[in-house]
Write a structure and sequence with these properties.
It contains 4 helices and no strands. The chain is an all-alpha fold. The protein has one domain.
Length: 129
């Protein structure tokens, strides 16, 4: 059961994020699928363990920070160190070394809203199964 609580969210995040990127940009990179899996597993852990009284906007803000941190970490490794040029936000205002920017952090905040509902569905199934 504990393994499923990590593996299933990872696989969902892996495939869903890759599909979102393909729909938005027309392509993706395997590192983005892995990052999507890790991020969704981390978000599920956060949603599961958040205090019940935590306001949803604060929960989504924490999720956006998790995603932005993952994006920066992966970006430094794959774009700045390995020079794979998976993405570049250099043309987006207030970017940090072309790896993260406030605009995409706002997108990540909004993405946390459906992610939470998806987690609730997955969590119910895991508890029932």
């Amino acid at each position: 059961m504990k393994l499923a609580r990590v593996t299933i969210p990872f696989l969902i995040g892996f495939f869903l994020y890759a599909l979102i990127e393909i729909a938005a940009r027309g392509y993706t990179h395997w590192t983005m699928a892995l990052t999507g899996g890790v991020v969704f597993a981390a978000l599920c852990h956060m949603f599961r363990n958040a205090p019940p009284a935590m306001p949803l906007p604060l929960l989504y803000l924490c999720g956006a920070v998790i995603i932005t941190t993952a994006e920066l970490s992966v970006g430094v490794a794959v774009n700045l160190y390995l020079h794979w040029n998976v993405w570049d936000y250099s043309d987006v205002p207030m970017n940090f070394h072309g790896q993260i920017c406030p605009l995409y952090s706002c997108f990540w905040y909004l993405l946390c809203i459906p992610a939470r509902y998806l987690w609730q569905m997955v969590d119910r199934q895991l508890k029932a199964g």
